[in-house]
Amino acid sequence: MTPNSLTDPHFARITPIVGRHLRRMKAAVVGLPLAEPLVKYLAASGVGHWALLDPTGQQTEQLRAYLLAQHGPALSLDLVACDRPEQLAASQPDLLISAGMLKTSLSLAREHRLPALLIAPPTLAHPCQAIAYFPGDKPPPLLDDAPGQLDAWGWITAAPLCASLGRAILLRQTDLYRPDLADMWQKGLRVLEIGPSDDPLNVRQPGPAPQSPATERTFRTPPGRRGRLLIAGLGSLGSIAATHLARHAAGFILADPDRVDAYNPVRQAYPLAQIGYSKATALKETLLALGADEVTALNLALTDEGEVSALLKRHQVTAALVVTGTAADFAIARALRRLDIPHLVGRCYPRARYWEAILVDGQRGPGLEAIRGFTTTGPAPPPTPEQIAAYSDAGALEAEPATLIESGWAATWLARLAAQILAPPALRERWFLDLLAAQQTCLVGGGAVQPTVAGPAYAISAPGQIRAWGRHNVRQSHPAKNAPAEIGSLAKAPPR
User: Fold this and answer.
1) How far apart are CA 160 and CA 158, in angstroms?
2) Are 93 and 26 a contacting pair, CB within 8 Å?
3) pLDDT at 207
4) What is the pLDDT of residues 252-282, one digit of tens each?
5) Domains of the chain (ranges, CATH numbers)
C-alpha cells in the first residue's frame, strides 16, 4: 500500500464520500485569485491534478505551498501554470472551472467539448450564479465578468457550494454521482443562484423571467474588529470558522482539550506540521499569521457552568461560537445566557449532509435549551451507513465521513453568523435582524436534497438552501422548565 493511496490516514475518513475516482481526474481553472478556494475545497476531496491560468505563476506557487503543507504526498499534487486559455484545453482536463472570463471560458469549453462550471461570484447587486455546462448544451446567458463590487461574505459562503457542484460534475458518471443534481441536470436545469443579498439563506433556479437584482444600497455590516469572541471547540467547524473571522474580532479566546491528529488536516485548519500540537495553540499561531490582533489559547474542555461563567468574566467575552459537538454545549450556553452574551451554537448532522446553527441574542429570544431537541424541523433523512453500523454487528467508523466541502460550508456560515452577533444591533444586517425579530433562530442548512416519504429532508428543496425555524415549531411536549419566562408567543409564520 503506497502513501498516496486514499486508504492512507490522511484521506481515510472521507473515502466513503469521494472514493478513488477523483484521484485520476484533472481540473483546469480560470479566474485566480478568486477561484482559489475552489481549488482548496476540491483538493481536500482528493483532486490533485490541476492546470491553472496564471501567466505570472505567482498564484500557482502560493497554492502549491498551501496544498503541500495541508496534504503532503497523500495528494500526489500535479499543479501547472498556463499562460493562455488554449494551454488549459491542451492539458485535457475533465472539468473547466471559471470564476471570471466567463465568455472566454464558455468558448473554450464549447470548442474543446469540455464540461464546465461557470461561476459569476456574488456582488452587492447580484447573487452568485453557478452554471453547469455539458458538451452539446445550448450556450447559457452569462452575467458580465465584473458587474459590481464583490460581496465578500456572499462568496465565502457560496464557494463550498460551487465546489460541491464541480465535484458532482467530476463524479456524475461514477457510482458516487449526486442523484439530486443528476435529476436537475436531466431536466435541463443548469443554473443555481446562491444567496441573493436580501435573502442570503436561499438558493433558487432562475425562471425564464429575469430576476430583479438587489440594490447595491442594501446595508452591509461595515468591516471592523469588534468584541472578544470565545470559540469553544476547534474541530472541523470551529477551526475553519476562526480563519474566516481572523479580522472580525478584536480578540479571540480559543478553548479545546484535544491535539491535532493525522486525520485533521484534510478538513480542519491545521497543516501537517501541526500534527501533535494542542489545537488551541496551533490555531492561535494560524490566526496570528492571518492578522488577528489578540489570541488566548486554552488547552481545556469547558464543561462546568460555574467555571465557564468565571472564564467569560475574566476574559471579558462579548460573543461566543460554541461548537464542541458534545453535551457541554448546554453548560456553556447557560453561562453565556446568564451573562447576557450573544452566542451561536452549531453542529453538523451525520456525514455533514446537514448542519444546524442556533442563534441566542443574549437574554432576548429563546435559549439553546428551549430549541435544541424540541424543534420540529421537517422529516429526517435516512440513516447513514455509519449510523446503521453503530446499531448492528458491523461496527462503526471512528468518525462520520465528511469532506471540507460539507463541513466547510457549515463553518463558513457559522463564521458569517458569528460576525453578525459580534456587531451591535445598529450594525447588523436586515436579514439577520429579521430572524431575531421573528424568533426564527434555529437554522438548518442542507448541501444536497434528500427525498423522504414525507418530502425533502428538513424541507431543504434545493441544494444549498437554509431553513429558519422558530418557537412556533417547538413540539407541544416541550418541557415548560426549558422555556424562558420572558418569551411571549410567536406569530404562526412559516419557516423561511
Assistant:
1) 6
2) yes
3) 58
4) 999 999 999 999 999 999 999 999 999 999 9
5) 9-204 (3.40.50.720), 228-482 (3.40.50.720)
